[in-house]
Design goal:
By secondary structure, the protein is mostly helical. About 40% of the residues are buried. The protein has two domains: about 120 residues; about 150 residues, no CATH class. α4 packs across α6.
Length: about 270
């Protein structure tokens, strides 16, 4: 079934993959630079990578797995581009970001073929729309922070082995990768806190209770707790390196289970 879905990937996803490949390949070769070509490729990746999300949302608001994956990829690319403008080292992380965004687009395409979702008949209220946007932003920031954590693990492994590797050639220096990881982690913590608060406010307005402890909410709070503990430990004890990266990846796994994971179980496994 999955092979059949991959053979029918829509044109929007094909366009996204084609615009993501150049920046992924150049970054993977260590040849992506902050010059005119680099910025043009980044802009093309952001625009092309957002096409599937726009296609999913055309004609109405969708909250299914395919839409979630496509919107996540688009949000990640937008946050990555903004961070690249502000931070010189960020662009080199495209060697990890680009391939992961391609993976999200492919998974979103497969999900859209396996499970077609009609748009919502009733437009979402302001609180719910704000909650969704904050949640998407939080997940995008944590995704990029997790990718930076993967970079930290690769760099530390190379340094421990005292050999030059692909990671040391193409990724930002370890100190800059860790700084980027922590910056994105702080952004994710702020956005996730706001997302949880607006979600509780929306539940209170619609259902008369602040929180209904579903799997999604429980996993989201656990992810926030892990992120908060990691930030506190980093501030008070200087926690960094592999231990911090593994904590971060654990928090990202929890939020992934809460966001697309719950949708995957509900839409694909349970049908």
């Amino acid at each position: 079934m999955i092979m059949r879905a991959m053979s029918t990937i829509p044109s929007a996803e094909v366009a996204a993959i084609l615009t993501l490949l150049p920046i992924s390949i150049l970054a993977g070769l260590g040849r992506l630079e902050r010059n005119t070509l680099g910025w043009m490729l980044l802009a093309a990746a952001v625009l092309g990578g957002s096409v599937p999300a726009l296609a999913e949302l055309q004609g109405g608001w969708r909250t299914g797995l395919a839409a979630s994956l496509h919107v996540t990829a688009s949000a990640c690319l937008i946050v990555f581009a903004a961070t690249s403008v502000l931070n010189a080292a960020t662009l080199r992380l495209a060697a990890l970001v680009g391939p992961y965004m391609i993976l999200l687009v492919v998974l979103g395409a497969i999900a859209s073929v396996l499970q077609s979702e009609p748009p919502l008949t009733v437009p979402p209220g302001a609180w719910f729309a704000g909650h969704v946007l904050l949640a998407i932003g939080a997940y995008a920031a944590l995704t990029l922070s997790a990718l930076a954590a993967c970079g930290v693990l690769l760099l530390e492994r190379a340094f421990k082995a005292r050999v030059e590797s692909w990671a040391t050639r193409v990724l930002p220096p370890l100190s800059e990768t860790e700084a980027l990881q922590n910056l994105l982690l702080k952004l994710a913590a702020i956005l996730l806190l706001l997302a949880l608060a607006t979600g509780a406010a929306n539940e209170l307005l619609d259902e008369g209770q602040a929180l209904a402890f579903t799997h999604k909410i429980l996993l989201s709070f656990l992810a926030f707790a892990v992120v908060l503990i990691l930030l506190v430990l980093h501030h008070r004890t200087g926690l960094r390196g592999r231990r911090a990266a593994r904590w971060l990846l654990g928090g990202y796994l929890l939020l992934t289970l809460a966001y697309p994971g719950v949708k995957f179980v509900r839409e694909i496994l349970m049908g």
